[in-house]
Design brief:
Strand order of the largest sheet: 3-2-1-4-5
Number of helices: 7
CATH topology: Rossmann fold
Largest sheet: 5 strands, parallel
Order of helices and strands: EHHEHHEHEHHE
CATH architecture: 3-Layer(aba) Sandwich
CATH class: Alpha Beta
Oligomer: single chain
C-alpha cells in the first residue's frame, strides 16, 4: 500500500517521538523509512536577511568578505552536524529490520516535508506536533498544521507525550 514512510526530524526529542511509530509503520507496510531534516543553508539565510531588511525599509547592510565566509563556514558545519544527527538516528534503528534512508534538505520545514511527499507516490507521513495553541501557535506557527493542509498523502500526527 505505501512505498515509504517519511519521518521529519528537527533535532528535538519531541520530533524523535515519531521514530518508533514510523518504524512500526515501515515494518507493517514492508517499506523503507525516510528520516528527513530541513535546515537553513547559507543562501537561504542571506536571502531571508536581505528580504527582512527590505521589508522593514532599512538600508541594505553591506557584509565584508570575511563575514560572508564566516556565515558560509557556519552553514557548512551545520550541514555536517545535520548529517551526523540523521546518521545517528538511523543507526539507532538499524537493528529494527527496516531499511532507513536519510535526507537533509535546504528548505523551510513545511516546504521540505510536502515536497518530499510529492516526489514519489505512495508516501505515508508520521510526524509530531509541538502541541502549541493560542498565542504561541499564532506567533510561531505550526509546521504540522501547514503540512496537514498541504499534503496530499496520509499524515499521522503524534502529540507530545502520546503513546502509540
Amino acid at each position: 500500500m505505501f512505498q515509504r514512510v517519511i519521518v521529519p526530524l528537527d533535532g528535538s526529542e519531541l520530533s524523535e517521538q515519531a521514530l518508533q511509530p514510523g518504524v512500526e509503520m515501515a515494518k507493517r507496510y514492508d517499506c523503507p523509512l525516510v528520516l528527513l531534516r530541513a535546515y537553513d543553508g547559507p543562501d537561504r539565510v542571506a536571502r531571508t536577511l536581505a528580504l527582512s531588511q527590505a521589508s522593514a525599509g532599512a538600508a541594505p547592510v553591506v557584509m565584508d568578505a570575511g563575514a560572508v565566509q564566516s556565515m558560509t563556514d557556519a552553514a557548512e558545519a551545520g550541514e555536517e552536524d545535520i548529517d551526523a544527527y540523521l546518521n545517528g538516528q538511523a543507526s539507532k534503528i538499524a537493528d529494527s529490520g527496516v531499511k532507513v534512508m536519510t535526507l537533509a534538505v535546504d528548505a523551510s520545514p513545511a516546504d521540505a516535508i510536502v515536497h518530499e511527499t510529492e516526489r514519489e507516490p505512495g508516501a505515508l507521513l508520521v510526524m509530531t506536533t509541538h502541541g502549541r495553541s493560542g498565542v504561541s501557535r499564532l506567533l510561531f506557527g505550526s509546521v504540522a498544521q501547514d503540512v496537514m493542509h498541504r499534503a496530499k498523502v496520509p499524515v499521522t500526527v503524534i502529540r507530545p507525550g502520546q503513546s502509540v
